[in-house]
Amino acid sequence: IEIKELDEFAQAAFHGYKSLNRIQSRIFQTVYYTNENILVCAPTGAGKTNIAMISILHEIGQHFRDGYLHKDEFKIVYVAPMKALAAEVTRTFSSRLSPLNMIVRELTGDMQLSRNELEETQMIVTTPEKWDVITRKSSDMSLSMLVKLLIIDEVHLLNDDRGPVIEALVARTLRQVYN
């Protein structure tokens, strides 16, 4: 799939790219044109970050109306396995989404956000433990209800010490979506 096949707004997030790789191209239709849940299992370096970007662009596209991005209608949450990776993901996505004026912020044990900062943020990069704490609080239900896309990186950690936290996040998210 060539980048020029994406919507014009989405092409900005792929500046410098000519086309998607084979794995990205193979699941492009599902990721970019549907709201299907997906699980991507691919080796390091296979382009999973770009698959996440495609899903983010799909979500953004659903809130583009009348030539305007309705940023107050949605939040995207990216759950990174650890704080160091959360900082790197925040930098990467912040840079790539800046042409769309999307605000990407880190929310971990080290990085707190005020209510105002949370409101003006479209994409939150967090850790499983931090998102678990936030989604357990009933006072933050309004934030949880605005989450339209949840990306869990390194989901294979389900088979690790942190597995129960990730499992709880998935179960809580499914309960919120289907209730």
TrEMBL record:
The keyword Nucleotide-binding applies. Gene3D superfamilies: P-loop containing nucleotide triphosphate hydrolases (3.40.50.300). InterPro entries: DEAD/DEAH_box_helicase_dom (IPR011545), Hel308_SKI2-like (IPR050474), Helicase_ATP-bd (IPR014001), P-loop_NTPase (IPR027417). PANTHER family: ACTIVATING SIGNAL COINTEGRATOR 1 COMPLEX SUBUNIT 3, DNA POLYMERASE THETA, PUTATIVE (AFU_ORTHOLOGUE AFUA_1G05260)-RELATED. Transmembrane segments: none annotated. Residues 29-179 form the Helicase ATP-binding domain. It comes from Citrus sinensis. Pfam families: DEAD. This is Helicase ATP-binding domain-containing protein. One of its GO terms (molecular function) is ATP binding. Keywords: ATP-binding, Helicase, Hydrolase, Nucleotide-binding.
